[in-house]
Design brief:
about 160 residues, 3 domains, about 10% strand, 3-stranded antiparallel β-sheet, 8 helices, mainly alpha, two-stranded antiparallel sheet
Length: about 160
Amino acid sequence: MQATTIKNLSAIDTVGQDEILRQVSAGISYRQIAKNVGVERTSLIRYLTQPLVAPLHALAITDRSHSLVDDMLDIADDMDGDSSVDPETGRTFSSPCAVQRAKLRIDVRKWQAQVTNRACYGDKATVEITSTPLQDAFNALLAKGSCILPNKVATIDNDTGKVAD
């Protein structure tokens, strides 16, 4: 098995693990972090997936998702730029471009939060059903050697495993 090498590890060591994880937490893109550190993006990713760094990286990603949700609230509450004043008439009118831009910014952050922290911000809920009356009845029939087939009830011979009429 070939060992994974990280190009320019000294640059990563110079900046420091804490600073890199702070930038991940802050939502800075991996491309930008790599540029800030002075390494290739792939080298940065290899570094962040090393066994000793990966758990800290996972925590930074979780923190980033919470920061993204905070950003969404700030963007939604910010009304600067939502309206403009017509210099000729002095009338105030809403700026649909500013509203659409804010909506896009929120949607991107929402998507990122859902992808990076599906358990907390994902759209789909996981429902676990442990038992239902129908399932209990079916299991009772199977225990007795009976099976429900479409439009009829059949009995299964326990010795041969075949359906008996």
